[in-house]
Specification:
CATH topology of the largest domain: Nitrilase/N-carbamoyl-D-aminoacid amidohydrolase
Radius of gyration: 26 Å
Strand content: 15-25%
Number of helices: 19
Number of domains: 2
Distance between the termini: 59 Å
Number of strands: 19
Length: 569
């Protein structure tokens, strides 16, 4: 390859902010151009942000995108070639009855749009629904990059999924064609590019590295991969853009969970340490959740958050995430004790608030409980007190938190974990209230392990706060309890969390039947009950606040289960 310097602009777009996103690209390219970069790669749909979803059905939005990219091309340094992600019109849509848009990459240089390349493989699994909007791409995916001194490079362009269908790596094919294999068979390429918006899931980065490395080796081509960073609604994008040499070695890697600019010289750089590595999964998940809360608040224009502090481990973790995301001065913890709240619930919540440096307010709910009892006394006459009264406590707390949210404009973070949400151990219009469910994809056992990690002195929060323990140890060691009746424990209603989480993992992530889970060693009655609880809780999940996705199978946009159905365990 002739001497040439490349750049990756790993950016955090705001969906729909065409002007702001173009400005981000311009600033990034200007910085990279000052370092001698001749070609800059940006992420998939970098002009509008990913995923734009049904904004793409707005005709004016698409027109404005065309205007924005033409204006960006004029403003960019003319000597630098820049690849940006756009949604471009399909001129044959009316004739063929096809989708009106392509998911595209545009080559900008010399003040103009020089070429446009279209995505070939349109994913429809998990959170993806691209064939709702886009037509399958056609045409050449290659351009020639002219270099100083009269030499040139033949460059192949792929977009996200296009590079993920290698049957030699996966030992199977999800699509009929392999765009990369087709490119390399039909053209003598010098370089392969991939624009991506690949959502985060724990453990996914090592898979990406292996897959992209394999592609570079098999096709004997250097490869540059630009991934979006930032959170949009329930999806978190981790960045960690990469460049590989022909031997499949990573020669440059972007930061995880933050914007970054990479300068890549294949002639000078050798294999480098991967700057995206985290000490363990707990550290990585915490970084993802911090970004998720920070971006949700920022992009929805919230400056402060409110959290119900129960003295339990879930609200403790959410409070720690919030402090790291938006600063301790912007977090309000509300304590709402009932007659059934233990003394340590209050003292533990206050100790947590002191450790994190957040302000608190206490609102006892006994008077409101009495008012509800009085109002319902005639209707509920001769009825035994049961879960109805327990749920009223949660709904009183939820109403108070929403009132605070309304009055002060705070974002209410709900604190339910994935284990509870899976089996419906949560109350509609109560503890499920909120604008964002920060740990909705975090199983209870993982909540404990993250909190234990937070208390290690190498966690950023421990270092910042100068603490030996971020989460008070009593919060971690005491048995979990909703404290809605005397001496209540979660395990009165649920299996132990280590058993529950294993059953849920096999049911939700591995798609195993009840009989298959029992064959793994679990009790038949417990498995049948958990399967039933997951099914009947679907109506609750449909009404829940959006939850940040950190696993490969999360409730939310990628979970498409019916509410009214009959399923035999």
């Amino acid at each position: 390859m002739p001497p040439v310097t490349f750049g990756i602009a790993q950016l955090n777009p705001v969906i729909g902010d065409l002007v702001g996103n173009c400005d981000r690209i311009l600033i990034a390219v200007q910085k990279l151009a000052s370092q001698g970069v001749q070609l800059v790669l940006t992420p998939e749909l970098s002009i509008c942000g990913y995923p734009p979803r049904d904004l793409l059905m707005n005709h004016q939005f698409v027109i404005d995108m065309e205007t924005a990219i033409a204006d960006l091309a004029r403003r960019l340094p003319h000597e630098v070639a820049v690849i940006v992600g756009i949604a471009s019109p399909n001129p044959k849509a009316n004739q063929s009855g096809g989708k009106p848009l392509f998911n595209s990459a545009a080559l900008l240089q010399g003040g103009k749009i020089q070429q446009v390349f279209h995505k070939r493989l349109l994913p429809t699994y998990d959170v993806f629904d691209e064939d709702r909007y886009f037509a399958v791409g056609t045409g050449s995916q290659v351009f020639t990059l002219d270099l100083n001194g009269g030499s040139s490079l033949r460059v192949g362009v792929t977009i996200c999924e296009d590079i993920w269908n290698d049957d030699k790596f996966w030992q199977k094919r999800n699509y009929a064609d392999d765009p990369v294999a087709e490119l390399t068979a039909n053209y003598e390429l010098d370089l392969l590019l991939n624009l991506s918006a690949s959502p985060y899931a724990v453990g996914k980065q090592s898979l990406r590295e292996a897959m992209l490395s394999h592609s570079a080796i098999v096709h004997n081509l250097p490869l540059i991969y630009a991934n979006q960073v930032g959170a949009n609604d329930d999806l978190i994008f981790d960045g960690r853009s990469m460049a590989f040499n022909c031997q499949g070695e990573i020669i440059s890697c972007g930061k995880g969970f933050e914007e970054d600019l990479l300068v890549i010289d294949f002639e000078e750089l050798s294999c480098t340490d991967n700057s995206s590595k985290y000490k363990n999964d707990n550290a990585e998940i915490f970084a993802a959740l911090v970004l998720g809360v920070r971006d949700y608040a920022r992009k929805c224009r919230f400056r402060q958050v409110v959290i119900g502090l129960s003295g339990g481990i879930d609200s403790a973790l959410v409070a720690a995430i919030a402090v790291e995301a938006i600063g301790k001065e912007n977090v309000l913890g509300v304590l709402m004790p009932s007659p059934y709240s233990s003394a340590h619930s209050i003292t533990d919540a206050i100790a947590l608030a002191d450790n994190l440096g957040i302000s608190t307010h206490k609102i006892p709910i006994q008077p409101m409980m009495s008012a509800f009892d009085l109002s319902l006394e005639a209707l509920f006459a001769n009825k035994t007190s049961d879960v109805t009264e327990e749920n009223l406590q949660s709904r009183i707390r939820g109403s108070l938190l929403m009132a605070i949210s309304n009055k002060f404009g705070h974002l209410l973070l709900s604190t339910g974990n994935k284990s509870e949400i899976s089996v419906g151990y949560c109350t509609l219009y109560g503890d499920m209230n909120g604008g964002l469910a920060a740990i909705a994809d975090v199983p209870k056992t993982r909540v404990f392990s993250i909190c234990e990690w937070l208390n290690q002195t190498d966690s950023n929060l421990a270092i910042k706060q100068g603490l030996q323990e971020v989460i008070p140890i009593n919060i971690i060691t005491k048995p979990p309890s909703a404290e809605l009746k005397p001496d209540q424990l979660d395990q009165d209603s649920l299996p132990p969390y280590d058993i529950l989480d294993d059953i849920l993992y096999n049911l939700i992530h591995q798609h195993l039947s009840a009989s298959e889970i029992v064959a793994l060693g679990h009790d038949q009655a417990i498995v049948d009950r958990v399967v039933r609880l997951v099914k009947i809780a679907e109506f609750k999940r449909r009404q829940a606040a959006p939850g940040l996705k950190i696993c490969d199978r999360a409730f939310g946009s990628g979970w498409r289960m019916p509410i009214a159905s009959k399923v035999t365990p």
